[in-house]
From TrEMBL, chains A, B:
<dbReference type="InterPro" id="IPR004303">
    <property type="entry name" value="PAD"/>
</dbReference>
<dbReference type="InterPro" id="IPR013530">
    <property type="entry name" value="PAD_C"/>
</dbReference>
<dbReference type="Pfam" id="PF08527">
    <property type="entry name" value="PAD_M"/>
</dbReference>
<feature type="domain" description="Protein-arginine deiminase (PAD) central">
    <location>
        <begin position="3"/>
        <end position="129"/>
    </location>
</feature>
<dbReference type="GO" id="GO:0005509">
    <property type="term" value="F:calcium ion binding"/>
</dbReference>
<dbReference type="InterPro" id="IPR036556">
    <property type="entry name" value="PAD_central_sf"/>
</dbReference>
<protein>
    <submittedName>
        <fullName>Peptidyl arginine deiminase, type II</fullName>
    </submittedName>
</protein>
<dbReference type="GO" id="GO:0005737">
    <property type="term" value="C:cytoplasm"/>
</dbReference>
<dbReference type="GO" id="GO:0005634">
    <property type="term" value="C:nucleus"/>
</dbReference>
<dbReference type="Pfam" id="PF03068">
    <property type="entry name" value="PAD"/>
</dbReference>
<dbReference type="GO" id="GO:0004668">
    <property type="term" value="F:protein-arginine deiminase activity"/>
</dbReference>
<dbReference type="InterPro" id="IPR013733">
    <property type="entry name" value="Prot_Arg_deaminase_cen_dom"/>
</dbReference>
<feature type="domain" description="Protein-arginine deiminase C-terminal">
    <location>
        <begin position="140"/>
        <end position="516"/>
    </location>
</feature>
Length: 519, 519
């Protein structure tokens, strides 16, 4: 709980490349690798030489040995590889180090904090005294340094984008064009994952989550690879892991992975303060089964454990199992906004949807059609929607599910009703009474600074203009945000996803450094 | 971190008797069992009846379900067993409860805090609203209560004894008589474990550790059964577990048990304050391998994890692997004493031993013999001891090992040199350079209030009086303590143990209640 030394998990490609061909790596092979490690200096004060038989020994416990390695810097070897010999690892828990005025060492983290690891590592130095040749030396002085492994940190929608990720498929040209335009408009980098790599899996949001690790000497992005493992499964390791781009994953050993394990079901709030408690890096948000249900779907335990163990963005569990796909991004998102909190929570709202449609009917637009222009099979009038009692009771049920989450979000993020904007979105129920969006789900959007890329809802037209877009644009423009509606009807909505599900954004890290948090 | 409700692990015999014949217990079978549970009252304020279809549901998470059960009290059944039906357990995570002004429930803890369980349990109540018969009810309000499971607490030598435990064997009559006399003198209860049960295993200290659990409504002793499992292994379960006497054990699944797993290697200090941090229930003390050694013996991980997880007596790890048997009680104990700290730490000290023997030689008693009267094979003179250079260097090594522990104890218990008394005890090395006491190890004593039962050292006699006893008695009488020397030479010392190893003491709980600690 005090200030101390920080260690990064050396999870970028230098680490991984070494591991694969040569798991017994005994040296540092690249100078860039040194940058990922924390320097540790051993300084001695005393006689020019130790008396005969006395020794300095560096040592770690067996428990810590699988989480840390220590290398030593020597000046004797012109060969770079020999210049940084391994001192401690899981095979060598204790090793003599030279007695000299100053010894430079490099410490490498190997494991992120997790359920069984609080992130603290101890490295000990002992001075050993000889009794006689017959007996073991005994320690007469021990000093200890503690390192804390830097947590994996997620980046909310309010942070500035760096790079936008999207898949190219045979059938998604309008979508790809829409996203590309938005990224180019703001000069964000764009990375397209092509079909040879995505094999038709377009759900870029679901396969991975971008985050970063940070220390005073170094920081770099780290992708958390979802255990979902669709056809995009090799993308994070093959295409993202790189020099100064880290990789971490958690895969359950004896649990089935389900749709709630996709990372459309893993989001993070902007910074919040709740009853005086500050969360300056926000709070992670995941969706799980409703607690009164014994047989619901849940996010797998190993991923939940990992997320909770990072500690700096204490997670909030919402109820998302009422949705057929089951992802929190189907009913909520955050957008930057003026005001002291700096953001608004957007929630899908069947009530707001029915209010809008009733207003249209009252104003004489009952014959206007949603899905206008998508063909006679799809089109359906405002009157028909409002006459459908079954649809109404399904949406009452959905509203109840969202309201329960709304209460949790208000309580756990310290929000007032003024901080929340209800978007007119209807749902319908599928098998098992689980819900999907009735028309393209506008809350499932991509947020790029002040630019929003929103699923084009294909709502009823009034005077040639989509009434849903008009309402949405009006709500967002009041916050200074610009709306771009992207047609994802055939290529995403019909496959039960939308813009957010089909994209991903790497963002700048927080300016606030995590080690300044009270933990 | 705030005041809240407390739960006991229902680990006494009512629980165990039910578990063995009927692991699917669905009712409370004895009124005494209710006393071990925490009452939980559900009070409602609202209309006389809920509107049709609305329900109150009590629920727990899957993770908590293996650690807690909830029973409900009904007045309808004259049959006691039916009067307390099970509401929640690991099979039923959610169940409707009646809507009435007041419902009385009983909550039962099933698991002690451990590495994977911080001791906090949540029980939720939700009000469910029906939408229509076709859909699941949705929760519209949820309330939650948090319980903390009471930790297992050890009792230091400074607490008043209640009951003394010792084994009877074919060959230990003088020892048994000595302990019996001490217990009777103070009117402590005495429990003798006879040979049919101990099967020759006399190490009553090593098979078990006494502790207790405490809550505002109930407290009782709980024995921690060591994974040592010598021939005494059935004694804790068969003879100690009882009505209001709990039982807990931890056995490693895939690790070999060794001598450091005996509970002569598990002690607890009196209350201490260290750099302003209070440990009003003392600190647990265990012995492990020295950290610079990669291949030493250690206390098994599952027991260490259990001890650390209790949190209220944060453990200190000493270095005991230098001893052949490897128990901390071979070189240290605590005795009550006047002064602000209320105790002294006694340490075995080869240096103090050599000082005493040299003093005898200087005073002309070099021909006096230790082991006097135990036969010519055993007897050896002060001069011979002092002439043995090998023995001296062995003891220098032992002193270094103890000094390292002395430094740890001073630092971790906040002790000064004045708080520590060095007892004149010599060691010798066996195979692997591991140490055993050269003559009966006086520090390995039983502490019963102000009465000390000390291994009779058979030291050199001066004017007919044992010089070791004289020194020991003089040191202890200065603290107001009475020494009784018990002959355990043949029946314990020769088998590498002493008085403490062969006895055990159940003590009164602390008056301070653990939930008043800052955690």
């Amino acid at each position: 709980n005090r200030h101390g030394a920080i260690l990064l998990v050396n999870c970028d490609s230098e680490q991984f490349y070494h591991k694969t061909p040569d798991s017994d790596r005994k040296h540092i092979t690249a100078v860039s690798d040194l940058n990922d490690m924390s320097p540790m200096v051993l300084r001695t004060k005393g006689p020019a030489q130790l008396p005969p038989g006395y020794k300095l020994t560096l040592h770690i416990s067996r428990g810590d040995a699988e989480k840390v390695r220590v290398f030593r810097s020597t000046v004797f070897f012109p060969d770079f590889v020999k210049r940084y010999p391994l001192v401690l690892d899981d095979q060598v828990l204790s090793q003599e180090v030279p007695y000299q005025e100053e010894t430079k060492l490099y410490v490498e983290g190997l494991r992120f904090p997790d359920k069984d690891f609080d992130g603290l590592l101890k490295i000990h130095l002992s001075l050993l005294e000889p009794i006689s040749e017959d007996f073991p030396e005994t320690p007469i002085y021990t000093d200890t340094v503690v390192f804390r492994v830097a947590p994996w940190i997620m980046t909310p929608n309010t942070l500035e984008p760096v790079e936008v990720f999207v898949c190219s498929t045979k059938d998604n040209y309008p979508f790809l064009k829409g996203i590309t335009g938005l990224a180019k408009k703001n000069n964000y980098k764009l990375k397209v994952c092509y079909e040879y790599k995505n094999r038709g899996d377009r759900w870029m949001q679901d396969e991975l989550e971008f985050g970063y690790i940070d220390s005073p000497h170094q920081h770099f992005p780290v992708v958390l690879d979802s255990p979902r493992d669709g056809d995009l499964k090799d993308f994070p390791y093959d295409e993202l892991l790189g020099k100064d781009f880290g990789y971490v994953t958690r895969v359950p050993e004896d649990e089935e992975v389900n749709s709630l394990d996709s990372f459309g079901n893993l989001e993070v709030s902007p910074p919040v303060t709740v009853n005086g408690k500050h969360y300056p890096l926000g709070r992670i948000i995941i969706g799980v089964a409703f607690p009164t249900s014994a047989h619901g779907r849940n996010m797998t335990k190993v991923v939940q454990d990992f997320l909770w163990a990072q500690k700096v963005q204490e997670p909030v569990a919402l109820f998302s199992d009422w949705l057929y796909v089951g992802h929190v991004d189907e009913f909520m998102t955050f957008v930057p906004a003026p005001g002291p909190k700096g953001f608004r929570l957007l929630l899908a709202s069947p009530d707001a949807g029915y209010k809008l449609f009733k207003g249209l009917q009252n104003d004489g637009h009952g014959k206007a059609k949603i899905f206008d222009g998508l063909g006679p099979d799809e089109e359906i009038s405002v009157d028909e929607i409002l006459d459908n009692e079954r649809l109404k009771s399904e949406n009452d049920y959905v509203q109840n599910c969202i309201d329960w989450n709304r209460d949790v979000l208000k309580r756990e993020l310290g929000l007032d009703d003024d901080d929340i904007i209800d978007l007119p979105i209807l749902f319908k129920l599928m098998e098992d009474n689980r819900a999907v969006a009735y028309y393209p789900d506008m809350v499932n959007m991509i947020v790029l600074g002040k630019e929003l890329g929103i699923p084009k809802p294909f709502g009823p037209k009034v005077d040639g203009r989509c009434a849903l877009e008009a309402e949405m644009t009006s709500l967002m423009e009041a916050l200074g945000l610009n709306c771009t509606y992207i047609d994802n009807f055939a290529s995403y909505h019909k496959l039960l996803g939308e813009v957010h599900c089909g994209s991903n954004v790497r963002r700048k890290p927080f300016e606030l450094r995590w080690w300044n948090l009270e933990m």
